[in-house]
Design a protein that fits this description.
Strand content: 25-35%
Radius of gyration: 27 Å
Bound molecules: 4-amino-1,4-dioxobutan-2-aminium adenosine-5'-monophosphate, magnesium ion
Number of strands: 18
Mean pLDDT: 96
Distance between the termini: 28 Å
Shape: elongated
């Protein structure tokens, strides 16, 4: 199929060199017929750019009437640079072959389709400009994430997807079972999980953190980057039921050092996007949200604002704005509060730390005031929370009290306790929601458009 000999359009566009006997393969994005010529725009997925194909002997091309929008073709011919024209280079075919026909009722036509329409055809939307760019961007940023940690000596950990613990203790887990749901074994009035596949109640993981802690307390610096699942009934533009999370975990690291790493990590990704993904960033800046590039550039020159939760509540109480959810010390900050802090008060991303213990997770380290924990949320304009992290409770006695207070099932945590029994050390980490980061960098307003196959309440298509 000439897989190894064909040339990718991305390489052709980067080099802009004349060449003979070049083979390209891809899909027709546009066709224009003039009197004696036919022009095709070919896209092979390697770049946003289409390669212009100029057929100067249309009468001699077999199947030409079927080479239309959406069709797959193989073209062999001569590359000729045309620096004075917008498309810069064109291919004059010696041979053109129809590989896969595409009927006229192809759902993607030569016009702007709405994002809502495209979500229903998620199997075809990667072939549009926007979703081609979005998916290439996703891949490049995933690479940058690995590069950031690998360059710093972190080890990549594959935390399990099936788990017996509720890492966040929020009860938002999907259950994993092979029980016949119409005939569940019962013992003394309760479900007999002993008879289930794993001999215990199991779930899809909400976070790889607890297992990352195991590895951090052996390898020092580790990170996970994998799928997590939340059965959260939040139908918002920022929530999905399945998303990828990056969770670094560092031994001998306190909250302030954790926050410093989080800041450096985010800056690295912004810099990478601007420097290494210019095709994608320019596209987002032009078509998705104006000022995306200048926003990231400004950010790179600034610093993250840092406030305590207590200070944040004071700011919100003094705000002249009317919030849907009233603020008082002890309440969870809502998206509207988070956005007020970044968008109106500070006009920049913000790190909020030292939250009341009751509204955070059981594993966070209790501060000396006995009221707050060493937690941090990183908030960004338009989105709100993008990172959640903390220093972990390394003191066994305090941890046990927290577990009791939160009503977490202690039986599943024996190994977590052991980590505090044998050579316990202060350690910290955080979780970055990959999709929220992509939303922020691209300016995409809905998380369903930065995830190829989004899973949300009542929707798990494709
Ligand atoms: O704040 P969260 O729940 O933190 C944790 O899971 C910790 N175990 C992380 C750690 O310390 N290792 O989630 C972390 C991030 C959020 O800040 C958000 O960006 C993203 O994950 N997130 C979601 N993204 C999309 N849809 C959802 N339903 C999300 N829930 C959380
Ligand atoms: Mg959180």
């Amino acid at each position: 199929m000439d897989y190894f000999t064909r040339k990718r359009v991305a390489a052709i566009m980067a080099e802009l060199q004349p060449a003979e006997d070049v083979i390209v393969m891809g899909w027709v994005r546009n066709r224009r017929d003039s009197k004696n010529l036919v022009f095709l725009s070919l896209n092979d997925g390697s770049t946003l750019n289409n390669l212009q194909i100029v057929i100067d002997n249309p009468g001699e091309v077999a199947d030409l009437e079927n080479i239309r929008l959406g069709a797959a073709i193989r073209v062999a011919g001569r590359l000729i640079p045309v620096p004075e024209r917008e498309h810069k280079i064109e291919l004059h075919p010696g041979e053109i072959r129809l590989v896969g026909e595409c009927p006229k009722e192809y759902p993607i036509q030569k016009k702007r389709h709405s994002f809502e329409y495209l979500r229903d055809i998620a199997h075809l939307r990667p072939r549009t400009n926007t979703f081609g760019v979005a998916n290439r961007f996703r891949s490049k940023i995933a690479y940058a994430i690995h590069k950031f940690y690998q360059d710093r000596g972190f080890f990549y950990v594959h935390s399990p997807i099936i788990t017996a613990t509720d890492a966040e203790g929020a009860g938002e887990q999907f259950w994993v079972t092979t029980f016949d749901l119409d005939n569940i074994p019962i013992n003394e009035g309760k479900v007999d999980y002993d008879k289930d596949f794993f001999g215990a109640q199991t779930f899809l993981t909400v976070s790889g953190q607890l297992e990352a802690e195991i590895m951090a307390l052996a390898l020092g610096d580790v990170y996970t980057f994998g799928p997590t699942f939340r059965a959260e009934k939040s139908n918002t533009p920022r929530h999905v039921s399945e998303f990828w999370m990056i969770e670094p975990e560092m031994a001998f690291c306190d909250l302030d050092e954790n926050m410093q790493l989080a800041g450096e990590f985010l800056m690295y990704l912004f810099e990478y996007a601007l420097g290494e993904c210019s095709e994608e960033m320019e596209f987002f800046n032009r078509w998705i949200e104006k000022n995306r590039i200048s926003t990231l550039e400004t950010l790179l020159k600034s610093k993250f604002e840092i406030v305590t939760y207590t200070e944040a509540v004071e700011i919100l109480k003094k705000a002249k704005k009317k919030f849907e959810f009233p603020v008082d010390w002890g309440v969870n900050l809502q998206a509207e509060h988070e956005r007020y802090l970044c968008e109106e008060h500070f006009n920049s991303p913000v790190m909020v730390k030292d939250y009341p213990k009751d509204i955070k997770a059981f594993y966070m380290r209790l501060n000396d005031d006995d009221k707050t924990v060493a937690a941090v949320d990183v908030l960004v304009p338009q989105i709100g929370e993008i990172i959640g992290g903390s220093q972990r409770e390394e003191r066994l006695d305090v941890l046990k009290k927290q577990v009791e207070l939160f009503g977490v099932n202690e039986e599943t945590l024996w190994w977590y306790y052991d980590l505090r029994r044998y050579g316990s050390v202060p350690h910290s980490g955080f979780g970055l929601g990959f999709a929220r980061m992509l939303m922020y960098m691209s300016g995409m307003a809905n998380i369903r458009d930065v995830i190829p196959w989004p899973r949300t309440p009542r929707s798990a298509k494709f």
